[in-house]
């Protein structure tokens, strides 16, 4: 509706008849300023309307070419308005971010079924493309976690003090520069305001000011008044360089507030007239009061008199003692209105303070310190100490102690054992903070009478740390070791929030049509099946066995699932024949004769160029159209030719995202700017179904597993059924025995 009113205002208004006419068969005669001719849409949408409504119709016409709804996000396409909804399905700017989250907690050394031995063995053996998927994903999560954990929250006492001082100095310098920039900006705005006032023509306020500057009557004794015009400096004093500028500023200020001054003078005149009528003043006061009463009755015309100018000039904000005089002459309401209208000028000329000093504040000046008295009226019950606090009061028997001087050598501990492991200690501290809600060494109130004070001392090799040091910086030169659990948790019973430090998010960007395939193949089938389903580990893995096998592969072609650490995504690696794979890794191992290799290199153009680049550009584009998005993103990094080939598919297969860059200015200011960037997503070929690979079962591995120790037994063990038979036989024998003894008697 707002846009419609703007378009109406831009051109002539609608005719009186056309504004309310919606009939397709209108036969109103064409009359000037009443109605116009009925026409049809020139874009052939089938709509009939009056000619004056053509501009409004263009805002609704379905055949008008309009930009995409995501034009602000980088989409360059334009289409008819009727195709906008259909285009959103293939719009390159319709990008979504995967929000899949999972939790991965640190390993627990005290847990009876921990996998620390397995993780250490896996790190030593699994290297290369055959690396286990769960290990690769856990190591990547650990790298991200190390980069987000800062050392300062847990160990503020281990920070470098010099670095803190430099940080404070930098903040002070930035604050000073910001204040200077703010002052310069205010000064610039003030100068612009002054220039704008100079460019204006004479206004009634300026004419009133000229009238106020008229000659004074000789019968009133002149008072020392600071002139607002350019005057000569006093004798014997050097002229101030800023006098002319300040005087000119005063003139402009006086012109701006001339109307307020006239109202103040009228109010003062009315007050003087009241005082003169009551007989409080002398004869001169009566004459002056009557004169100012006439001025008040005359309104703004009274400002032409000399006394009015003198009184008005004495109430200007730049005169000394103006507030003292006005406080005595004006009523409280008028005095407050004067402060409201002239407050900024009074602060500018030093008449009042912007902030009341503490020594002048009537609140703080009248306060006196009051002694605080503490009353101890709470008494613990008599039986509370014996029953509930026995373990704290020391009633339990203590071991015998002996006072003896010892040295660190008596502890028989190596020097390397004095230092704490930064990774283990930091992960334990943050895990305690997330799971329990407080630090390990935090104070804890047991009850109303006792408080536990926790103390914990750490000795690190790289202490003291810098202000922005992270755990990743500390562990950069240390041997790699997995300290997180191999298996992630999707739903945590301990922490339901997504803001946990141990929460990891996929965070990859995909086109809207690609997200369902990514979520199903990567998260639902691969990542959630790493726990002995998609990738099966040996049942004796808890003892340290590192054997694992991948049970599934795509049903359409042979390929293995791998994890790309650089891109942080899963990928499909085709299974090549052994000969081709060997040639791809080592081209010199080819079995072809040298003459054939030279001919192939000559056809490719020589100079080390591959044979694929020698194909025509159209053929390369056709071949690239069969690749998935992840393959296209990597193919574009091979050469300039391949980059051009992949760029031809960006409009159909790619997506456009906003890339934010931080621009820093010379005065240490910074500003973030976004620019559209075209790229391919990291989605591999969609897998509709998986089938079990042709591999041996896990039982075949258990026969040769080094951790599968059998315990052969040679002694015979009776089965439960055999025991029941023996018991029945014994019962029958006893019955016969007793029955036989009866017969004898």
Question: Can you tell me about this structure?
Answer:
With 745 residues, this protein is mainly α. Helix content is 40%, strand content 10%. It has 27 helices and 18 strands. The strands form 9 sheets. The chain has a two-stranded antiparallel ribbon with strand order 1-2. A hairpin with a 5-residue loop joins strand 7 and strand 8 (451-452). Helix 9 (258-277) crosses helix 10. The longest helix is centred in the first third of the chain and has 39 residues, at 161-199. Mean pLDDT is 75; it is low at 1-10, 201-243, 280-311 and 601-608.
Features:
745 residues, mainly alpha, two-stranded antiparallel sheet, 27 helices, 18 strands, flat
Quick recap:
By secondary structure, this protein is mostly helical. 40% of the residues lie in helices and 10% in strands. It has a two-stranded antiparallel ribbon with strand order 1-2.
Topology:
Layout (H helix, E strand, L loop, with lengths): L1 H9 L27 E3 L7 E3 L3 H5 L6 E3 L10 E3 L3 H4 L7 E3 L3 E3 L12 H10 L7 H16 L12 H39 L4 H9 L30 H14 L1 H20 L5 H16 L7 H9 L7 H8 L2 H17 L13 H5 L17 H4 L2 H4 L28 H14 L8 E2 L5 E2 L18 H4 L28 E3 L3 E3 L3 H12 L8 E3 L10 E3 L1 E3 L4 E6 L4 E6 L3 H8 L8 H10 L13 H8 L4 H7 L4 H8 L2 H4 L1 E10 L5 E10 L10 E3 L5 H7 L15 H25 L1
Antiparallel strand pairs: 1-2, 3-4, 5-10, 6-9, 7-8, 11-12, 13-18, 14-15, 16-17
Helix pairs in contact: 9-10
């Amino acid at each position: 509706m707002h846009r419609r009113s703007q378009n109406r205002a831009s051109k002539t208004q609608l005719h009186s008849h056309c504004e309310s006419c919606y009939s397709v068969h209108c036969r109103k005669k064409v009359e000037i300023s009443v109605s116009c001719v009925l026409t049809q849409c020139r874009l052939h949408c089938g709509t009939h309307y009056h000619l004056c409504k053509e501009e409004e119709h263009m805002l609704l016409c379905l055949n008008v070419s309009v930009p995409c709804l995501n034009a602000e996000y980088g989409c360059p396409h334009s289409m008819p308005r009727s195709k906008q909804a259909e285009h959103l399905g293939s719009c390159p700017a319709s990008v979504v971010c995967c929000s899949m989250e999972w939790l991965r907690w640190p390993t627990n050394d005290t847990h009876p079924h921990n996998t620390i031995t397995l993780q250490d063995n896996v790190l030593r053996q699994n290297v290369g493309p055959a690396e286990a998927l769960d290990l690769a994903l856990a190591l990547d999560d650990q790298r991200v976690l190390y980069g987000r954990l800062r050392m300062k929250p847990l160990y503020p006492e281990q920070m470098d003090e010099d670095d803190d001082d430099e940080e404070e100095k930098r903040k002070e310098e930035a604050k000073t520069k910001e204040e200077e920039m703010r002052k310069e900006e205010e000064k610039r705005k003030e100068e612009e305001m002054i220039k704008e006032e100079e460019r204006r023509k004479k206004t009634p306020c300026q004419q009133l000011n000229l009238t106020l500057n008229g000659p004074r009557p000789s019968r009133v004794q002149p008072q020392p008044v600071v002139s607002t015009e350019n005057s000569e400096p006093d004798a014997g004093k050097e002229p101030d360089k800023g006098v002319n500028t300040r005087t000119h500023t005063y003139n402009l200020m006086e012109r701006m507030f001339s109307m307020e001054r006239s109202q103040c003078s009228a109010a003062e005149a009315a007050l003087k007239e009241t005082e003169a009528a009551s007989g409080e003043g002398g004869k001169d006061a009566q004459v002056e009061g009557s004169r100012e009463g006439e001025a008040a009755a005359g309104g703004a015309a009274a400002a032409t008199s000399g006394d009015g100018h003198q009184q008005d000039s004495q109430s200007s904000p730049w005169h000394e003692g103006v507030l003292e005089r006005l406080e005595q002459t004006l009523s409280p309401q008028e005095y407050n209105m004067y402060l409201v209208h002239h407050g900024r000028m009074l602060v500018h000329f030093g008449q009042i303070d912007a902030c009341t000093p503490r020594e002048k504040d009537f609140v703080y000046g009248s306060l006196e310190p009051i002694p605080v008295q503490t009353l101890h009226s709470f008494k613990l019950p008599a039986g509370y100490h014996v029953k509930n606090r026995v373990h704290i009061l020391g009633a339990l028997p203590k071991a015998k102690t002996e006072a003896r001087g010892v040295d660190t050598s008596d502890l028989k501990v190596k020097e390397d054992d004095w230092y704490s492991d930064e990774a283990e200690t930091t992960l334990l501290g943050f895990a305690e903070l997330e799971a329990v809600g407080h630090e390990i060494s935090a104070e804890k109130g047991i009850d109303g009478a006792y408080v536990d004070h926790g103390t914990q001392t750490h000795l690190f090799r790289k202490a003291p740390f810098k202000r922005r040091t992270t755990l990743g910086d500390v562990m950069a030169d240390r041997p790699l070791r997995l300290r997180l659990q191999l298996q992630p948790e999707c739903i945590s019973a301990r922490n339901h929030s997504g803001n946990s430090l141990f929460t990891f998010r996929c965070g990859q960007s995909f086109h809207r049509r690609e997200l369902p395939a990514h979520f199903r193949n990567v998260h639902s089938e691969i990542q959630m099946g790493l726990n002995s389903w998609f990738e099966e580990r040996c049942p004796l893995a808890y003892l340290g066995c590192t054997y694992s096998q991948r049970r599934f592969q795509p049903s359409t072609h042979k390929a293995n699932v791998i994890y790309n650490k650089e891109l942080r995504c899963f990928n499909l690696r085709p299974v090549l024949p052994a000969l081709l794979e060997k040639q791809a890794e080592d081209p010199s191992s080819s079995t072809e004769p040298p003459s054939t290799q030279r001919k192939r290199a000559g056809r490719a153009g020589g100079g080390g160029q591959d044979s694929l680049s020698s194909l025509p550009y159209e053929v390369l584009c056709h071949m690239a159209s069969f690749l998935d998005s992840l393959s296209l993103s990597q193919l574009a990094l091979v050469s300039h030719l391949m980059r051009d080939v992949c760029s031809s598919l960006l409009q159909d297969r790619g997506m456009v995202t906003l890339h934010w860059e931080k621009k820093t200015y010379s005065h240490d200011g910074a500003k973030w700017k976004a620019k559209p960037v075209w790229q391919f997503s990291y989605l591999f070929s969609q897998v509709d179904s998986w089938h079990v690979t042709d591999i041996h079962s896990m039982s075949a591995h258990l026969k040769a597993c080094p951790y599968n120790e059998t315990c052969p037994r040679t002694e015979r063990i009776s089965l439960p059924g055999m025991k029941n038979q023996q018991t029945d036989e014994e019962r029958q024998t006893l019955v016969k025995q007793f029955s036989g003894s009866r017969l004898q008697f």
